[in-house]
DNA sequence: GCCAACGTTGGC
DNA sequence: GCCAACGTTGGC
């Protein structure tokens, strides 16, 4: 089993939105970064666990846990001219962008903020706290996953 | 293949 | 709203 962190702007899509979905499940569409795509397309497995992270908000941080319930498949929003994430270069016969489905698992007992994560030396290799990191999907080592959950 | 211009991300 | 970081685009 693998561990991940996925970012979302709560104004766009929050963990509460995920929890309110039918089956508490949603497709993680709109990722338009090759590294993040590769992870979703090639590496994510059913049962993998995901930290749900709220970015671009007053108090950015990890707010809950989700799980991967469907492995990578073409992001159809790229084919929809009217969609915000439309990409003319993604051909349905040779899709450029992929997504996975995730299901709500639970909220954390409290938000573990980015600023708190930055104070822990043990997490200095965690991509989220590395300067300039903008990946919206990133791997989390089991060691870091366990450490972060123990902060809860 | 280089690199300047441009767009986006996301913390603050 | 600002701006640093960094990915992408496109001219050459």
What does this structure look like?
The protein is α+β, with helices and mostly antiparallel strands and 152 residues long. Helix content is 20%, strand content 32%. The protein is built from four helices and six strands; from the N terminus they run βαβαβββαβα. It has helices at residues 15-20, 34-43, 114-118, 142-151, and strands at residues 3-8, 25-27, 49-54, 61-74, 98-113, 137-140. Strands 2-5-4-3-1-6 form a six-stranded mixed sheet. The longest helix is centred in the first third of the chain and has 10 residues, at 34-43. The relative contact order is 0.24.
By helix and strand content, what is the structural category? alpha+beta
Mean pLDDT: 93
Number of helices: 4
N- to C-terminal distance: 21 Å
Helix content class? 10-25%
Largest sheet: 6 strands, mixed
Helix-strand string = EHEHEEEHEH
Quaternary assembly: single chain
Estimated share of beta-strand residues: 25-35%
Form type? globular
Alpha carbon gyration radius: 15 Å
Number of strands: 6
Strand order of the largest sheet: 2-5-4-3-1-6
The low-confidence runs, each spanning 5 or more residues with pLDDT under 50, are none
